[in-house]
Amino acid sequence: MGSETKERQEKATQVYAALGVGFVCILIGLPLWWKTTDTYRVQLPYDEIEQLAERKTKYTVDVTVIIFGDNVDKLWLAEFGEQLKDALEGESHSTKQLSVQYRGNLREAYEEENFALQKSFTIQELDSSLERSRVLEEHGKYFFYILPRQSKFLSVTTWVGIKRNTFLSPGEPLQHGNEEYYMGVREFVPIIKSLVRDTFVSEAAMLRTYQSARGKQHLETDKQSMRAVKSAPSYDVTFTLLNPQPDMLDVQWDIEQGVHTYLGPFLDQLSPYINITITSQVIHYTRLSLKPRVDSTTHQHYLRPEDLPHLITPIETKLGSHVSNSPGLNFVVYVPTRDQSPLVIRDASGNPSKTNAFLSPRWGGILIYNIESPQAGATLPVPVDVDMKPVLAVFLAQLKLLLGFYAQKSPAISWADAVNSGLAGWELDLWMRDRTLENIATSTATLRSLAHLLAQIGNIVIKDEIGLEVHQAVDSIATSQTFLSQGNLKAAYLASRQAIISSEKAFFDQSLLELLYFPEDQKFAIYIPLFLPISIPVLLSLMHAFKWFRGKDTETIKKD
Fold this sequence. Notes:
Layout (H helix, E strand, L loop, with lengths): L1 H35 L9 H9 L2 E11 L6 H15 L9 E11 L2 H9 L3 H10 L8 E6 L11 E3 L4 E4 L9 H9 L1 H13 L2 H11 L9 H5 L6 E10 L5 E4 L2 H16 L4 E10 L8 E2 L6 E3 L5 H11 L8 E7 L8 E3 L11 E4 L3 E5 L13 E4 L2 H16 L10 E2 L9 H32 L7 H23 L2 H19 L15 H37 L1
Parallel strand pairs: 1-2, 1-3, 3-5, 4-16, 6-8, 6-11, 7-15, 10-12, 11-14
Antiparallel strand pairs: 4-5, 9-10, 13-14
Helix pairs in contact: 1-16, 2-13, 3-7, 8-13, 10-12, 13-14, 13-15, 14-15
């Protein structure tokens, strides 16, 4: 009897030990394992990202028409305003995703504007005086001044200033009455419409840029979109001088002073919006891999348009590169060898190129700089200085095209020359509006792709830093769209630039690489060898304990 009691006590001890081990494994071990192996994923605004993709983007353009003169007929002024409103709000390039709104204002000239008209002797002076009267630069707001009949600028029909002023003159003789003058002013409605919608705003180009950035397929390709590099907060620009025969020509160039003098005004205008880093280098003993053609009549060496693409790849391998996240642009000055000099570029018709240079889309440009061969008996190498003014004039024009400045100027209109080859105010606005729409569309598409990626792969860790960048990108997109609809172009661009920076920083974070994580089906191969040897004894012990309790209950009932 005592041995049976002792045996039952030992059995009970084993059972309670098994239950203790089982409960520890199930109630403590499994939750602890689940918690320690759980993937940390910060909450992202998935709904807001989808709403941004479906939200319509609208940009607003302000147009103000100012009429000089006293006692302007109020009724005619109202009729003219209605005609202008109908012209601007007519058929536009608006879609479900993008629309444009024009806010018009028609008024008589203020006292200070009339004073500026009286004191100015040239249209340029009047333009500068009116610009100085504005305290702040108003991006995306355009002013049309209709000059009086008695104006000294009657020879000017339509003249666009260096900022955002446009001057229109009816050109009516002094003896004509008000009716003839008013009829002449009404003829400016289609001119204002064309300037605003086709040149200052360029609705078709804006729509093309926005749809392309959103990833819409089957769009008609155009030179502008294929030529310009994508929008970015910074760019790396490299100027290279190639001298294949340094033993004959000691070619020198003052690139630092040249960039400061001829590119400085342009770079200064863009400095608040993008960062352009400029470097330069000189490479010797590098010549063209393609043998130029020779004109049988003039014995002149030349290159045809079909030859030009083959020049870039061999030269590009010699240029070198540096690690950078910014898009790079290359501008090369090539000095031909003496046996191939002078070397010219001819167009498809066989005519020599005026600049002797060509542009490669999204890469840069190459200019062939011919130098006279050294005279017989000259001491070698002969020192030669590159004239930087014509060289950088060509590269400046190419740089504008590569950065997306594509304004088209009608030859029927007089245009003011930008100061020191910089940018006109309306050109900067056009570029800023184009880049803003591209940034909004690109960052929205990037966030949607990121959201879909994280939804498909559930075991990717989403760090707090990524969550902050995503939230900042979403807020920046919404802010940019708000400013754009209000007509605040500069603020809209700066917000869109932050959106593109944050969205790409989140998307390309190294912790989001899918290869860093095991697929779901491979987790079984990892955890089964770990849990199977432990779980089988624990489960068997729990089964024996359960049977023991059932047997104990049966024995108790029998005794009763």
